[in-house]
Specification:
The complex is a heterodimer of chains A (650) and B (243).
Chain A: H1 4-35, H2 42-60, H3 63-84, H4 94-116, E1 132-136, E2 141-145, H5 146-168, H6 170-180, H7 182-186, H8 192-214, H9 224-239, H10 244-264, H11 272-283, H12 294-297, H13 315-326, H14 337-360, H15 371-387, H16 392-414, H17 419-439, H18 441-444, E3 450-451, E4 456-457, E5 460-461, H19 465-488, H20 490-500, H21 502-507, H22 512-538, E6 540-541, H23 548-561, H24 567-586, H25 590-604, H26 612-628, H27 631-649
Antiparallel strand pairs in A: 1-2, 3-6, 4-5
Helix pairs in contact in A: 1-5, 1-8, 1-9, 1-10, 2-3, 2-4, 2-8, 2-9, 3-8, 4-25, 5-6, 6-8, 9-10, 9-11, 11-17, 14-19, 14-22, 14-23, 14-24, 15-16, 15-17, 15-22, 16-22, 19-20, 20-22, 23-24
Chain B: E1 6-15, E2 18-28, E3 33-37, H1 44-52, E4 59-64, E5 67-68, H2 74-79, E6 82-85, H3 97-105, H4 116-122, H5 124-128, H6 139-151, E7 157-161, H7 169-184, E8 188-193, H8 196-202, E9 205-210, E10 213-219, H9 220-225, H10 227-234
Parallel strand pairs in B: 3-8, 3-9, 6-7, 7-8
Antiparallel strand pairs in B: 1-2, 1-4, 4-5, 9-10
Helix pairs in contact in B: 3-6
Classes of the chains: A mainly alpha (650), B alpha/beta (243).
């Protein structure tokens, strides 16, 4: 039996937690409400706020000054970030905003590590808020930290402040109008673009305030924003994208579900929040208080130029394979076996990026949950080889089939969602698997993970660097060739048609959901193969393989290379892994450079590395035409190209 | 003759690759009500968009009140007194009627023709619906709201894009009455119409546009008398001529 005192204490804990989520989600919701931007840098801005607060306290000794100054500084950082980057690309697909803010997140996190150092730091509670308050009543006897009570009050204060700002001021009116139709606001003589900057700054400042408020209560570390970011996303989605009131309600609800849920149904600890989000998205995708907006539902991945995949049998394809086949011969002469191992790792990641490109680049659905396939593939492989057979190919096959089935299941539930909603539900499913990996320790080994025997097959040692290299290369080439083939088939043409316009494809009589489900299952299968090989690469699996960061890295590798080309994502994976494994050895702040690289790619070469030859030749071409003044002819050539393409599309 | 309030000289404009305006020249003098008539796709809306700056002309100049505004951003042109009421209305659906009107009053610039209070006297229907969200209004009411919103800001020139499009005949009457009332206040109006009869009823002077070029300019009598222009450029057939 749960005593009333325990119940009330848990209730207060739930409220505290909910207010904490509210504080972080508030800024996210404000930013999304006007700009439709999913700000992945929000957790980093929150963390930055905590560190800046720490420094202000260090200088002035006042918590209250920190609470005032740190948010302003974070707001300025947000304004600068918006002005330099997002400001120029609002008309792009939301996906690019995600990548860009992801890059910004890496840069801010590295910057903080550089300035304040990577160790967690202590942030003391101000004296006036230290200690506990006690309450004695007939059946209740509660003592509760004063700071947590203060936090609840502060959360209510911030929520009222933001609500009042939007409801009663001219600023709020313009922002609400701008959220509905920025073009019309301009036609009323108001330069709405400045308001986008202000709103982003406001959202960032709110994140900063949340950081300072949370700091005495949690420890301050560079990674403090990572896990809370996902909860903040969930809050905003559950509440309804773009609805501030919804975010408030959802934050409190999630806090209560988490604390009371743990009390009443301890088995669901860690799962309840994700289950709540999945349930909301399935039953009411627009969220508790939101409205389903087409713009948020559409990740419109439409390309102005089609870059066809390089065929395996083409000269480039054969040459690339030949060069890669020769690489191990150089061991000990030109390079060490370390680099051959690194190439195998790149091949494995290339497979994951390739699998993502099938759903994202070819079908236009942003999956933010491919970590599920990567991780499940790895776990199935390890468990199979530990318990049942030492034949690695059997484990690989089993991993592929399992992930295909899981992908089909996730697809069956969520494939009718699109855009941001689809990204969020796939994220939630992946996080469920992550929780299983962490908590089901009898089978998965919990956070410690599992070690697997060296992979082998009929006496051949697959763990040997060179053998494993050829194995991954062969699987990669085979999968790539097969994918090119499939996407060129009638099935693939329907998939591509869905990307261009699902409605039109459906009106031609295709059951688009069926095609989407199958393509997603195919993608999951390949993701599972990649995960299985990853386990084979490191002979070990841990819940890290299921963490959302893996999904994020896969999206980045895909984008970096150039989605919708199949070979681009593989190049992206090579660059991404090359940078993270290669540079990390030499440059301490390499993640900063990676972030910068991502930002630059989004800004200047949105079709990724695969499009760089065209971007470069186009700009030199432009320079040439300016030089000779024959721009008219170029225009006509462009025009004919476009006309021809439009003809194709009809 | 007084200096024109608005003049377009050889304006070219295009959307991406498709060249819509091919050298449009026209003038509107202060206090005039001028119509721009043409078939679907002739370039009427594009002309308005070039005037207000939603679309930047690729060639030619737009002069407003003696100042070259060709390359000014749209919000700055609006601040100078060009008000544009687009065809698809564009009230803010989630704001109340009152908030919609206040949005018209927030721009920097001179006084409007009406204050928010006065505009309710001109449009009594809007006062009744003051605190309802704009999405609950009928099409005609939304049209009134958007015109009213334009008038609470400084309005030297009102650009109306097919104000009666898609409205029931009785509501069309109301809208035309409102336009008459606005002209009596001395507002200069450039009206875009597909329906030549509606244009002739409202405006004093007319331009006919076809395939991105002005093919006729003259007063109502001249347009009425020019059967060739009507048939060739407006597709007004002999049997459809009289209402």
């Amino acid at each position: 039996m749960i005593s009333p005192s325990l119940f009330v204490t848990e209730l207060l804990n739930g409220l505290t937690l909910g207010v904490l989520y509210l504080l972080i989600a508030a800024g996210l919701s404000v930013i999304f409400g006007m700009t439709d931007i999913i700000n992945f840098a929000h957790g980093a801005l929150y963390m930055l706020g905590a560190y800046l607060g720490l420094s202000v306290i260090g200088v002035t000794g006042s918590f209250w000054l920190a609470l005032l100054i740190a948010p302003i500084l974070v707001g300025v950082v947000g304004a600068v970030m918006e002005r330099l980057t997002l400001h120029h690309i609002y008309d792009r697909d939301p996906l690019y905003h995600i990548i860009l803010t992801f890059g910004a997140m890496l840069m801010i996190t590295e910057g903080v590590k550089y300035v304040w150092g990577p160790q967690p730091q202590q942030f003391s509670t101000p004296a006036i808020l230290a200690g506990t308050a006690t309450m004695e009543m007939s059946m209740l006897s509660i003592s509760y930290p004063i700071y947590k009570l203060f936090l609840i009050a502060a959360g209510v204060g911030v929520a009222l402040l933001v609500w009042g700002l939007f409801k009663f001021t001219d600023f709020g009116l313009i922002v609400r109008a701008g959220a509905q139709n920025p073009g019309t606001v301009r036609l009323l003589g108001i330069d709405v673009s400045n308001y986008f900057t202000l709103v982003f700054a406001l959202g960032a400042a709110l994140a900063g305030a949340a950081g300072v408020l949370a700091a005495p209560f949690l420890s301050v570390s560079p990674s403090m924003g990572d896990s809370i970011l996902i909860v903040a996303f969930i809050t905003v989605v559950v509440g309804g994208l773009g609805s501030f009131r919804g975010s408030v309600v959802a934050a409190i609800l999630i806090g209560l579900v988490e604390s009371l849920g743990n009390l009443l149904v301890p088995e669901l600890t860690g799962f309840s929040v994700y289950l709540l989000m999945i349930a909301v998205l399935l039953v009411r995708p627009q969220g508790l208080l939101g409205e389903y907006k087409v713009r948020q539902a559409s990740t419109k991945v439409s390309f102005d130029e089609v870059i066809p995949p390089v065929r395996v049998t083409s000269k480039t394809g054969l040459a690339a394979i030949a060069v890669l086949m020769l690489v191990p011969l150089g061991i000990g002469i030109v390079w060490s076996s370390y680099y051959v191992g690194l190439l195998s790792l790149i091949f494995v990641w290339a497979l994951l990026a390739l699998s993502l490109d099938i759903v994202m680049g070819y079908m236009g659905l942003l999956s933010f949950g491919h970590a599920a396939f990567w991780g499940v593939g790895a776990y199935v492989t390890v468990l199979t080889t530990v318990h049942y057979t030492d034949l690695f190919p059997v484990a690989l096959l089993l991993a592929a089939v399992t992930c295909g089935v899981i992908a089909w299941g996730i697809g069956a539930l969520s494939i009718r969602l699109t855009g941001v909603y689809f990204a969020m539900i796939t994220l939630a499913f992946a996080e469920l698997f992550h929780q299983i990996g962490v908590t089901w320790s009898e089978v998965t080994g919990g956070a410690n993970g599992l070690i697997m025997p060296i992979p082998q097959m009929f006496g051949i040692n697959l763990g040997d660097t060179v053998v494993f290299y050829y194995l991954t290369l062969a699987i990669l080439v085979g999968t790539y060739a097969l994918s090119v083939r499939i996407l060129d088939s009638p099935f693939g043409r329907v998939v591509k048609a869905i990307r261009e316009s699902e409605r039109r494809t459906a009106s031609l009589g295709y059951d688009t959901n069926k095609f989407k489900r199958r393509a997603f299952a195919l993608s999951g299968t390949i993701g599972g193969i990649a995960g299985s090989l990853f386990a084979g690469y490191q002979w070990f699996v841990s819940p890290e393989t299921l963490h959302w960061v893996v999904s994020g890295d896969a999206v980045i590798a895909m984008m970096l290379g150039g989605m919708g080309t199949l070979f681009g994502p593989m190049i992206g994976a090579a660059v991404f892994i090359g940078i993270s494994e290669g540079l990390s050895a030499y440059i301490p702040g390499w993640r900063f450079l990676l972030g910068l690289f991502l930002v630059l790619i989004v800004m200047f070469a949105p079709r990724g590395i695969a499009s760089l030859p065209r971007v470069i030749s186009k700009s030199t071409g432009d320079a040439r035409s300016r030089l000779f003044g024959d721009s008219d002819e170029i225009d006509i050539a462009d025009y004919e190209q476009t006309a021809a393409k439009e003809g194709e599309n009809e | 003759m007084t200096d024109p309030l608005l003049s377009l000289e050889d304006v070219h404009a295009s959307y991406g690759e498709s060249h819509i305006l091919r050298g449009v020249s026209m003038e509107v003098s202060p206090g005039e009500v001028v119509s721009l008539v043409g078939r679907n796709g002739a370039g009427k809306t594009t002309t308005l968009r070039s005037i207000v700056g939603v679309l930047e002309p690729t060639r030619g100049t737009v002069t407003f009140d003696g100042e070259d505004v060709t390359h000014l951003p749209d919000h700055e042109r609006v601040q100078r007194g060009i008000q544009y009421v687009p065809e698809d209305r564009q009230a803010f659906p989630d704001l109340t009627v009152d908030e919609n009107l206040r949005m018209g009053d927030l721009r920097s610039g001179g006084e409007g023709i009406y204050t928010v209070d006065e505009v309710y006297d001109v449009f009594p229907r809007l006062r009744e619906r003051q605190s309802q969200s704009a999405s609950h209004l009928s099409g005609g009411e939304q049209q009134m709201l958007v015109i009213a919103r334009a008038l609470v800001g400084e309005t030297e020139l009102l650009l109306l894009d097919e104000p009666s499009e898609g409205l029931a005949p009785q509501i069309v009457r109301d809208v035309l009455d409102v336009i008459d009332r606005i002209r009596d206040e001395g507002v200069t109006i450039l009206l875009v119409e597909q329906n030549v009869h509606a244009a002739m009823e409202t405006a004093d002077r007319h331009y006919v546009i076809d395939r991105g070029q002005i093919v006729f300019e003259g007063d109502t009598a001249a347009l009425e008398g020019d059967r060739e222009v009507q048939e060739k450029h407006l597709g007004v057939g002999a049997t459809l001529d009289e209402p």
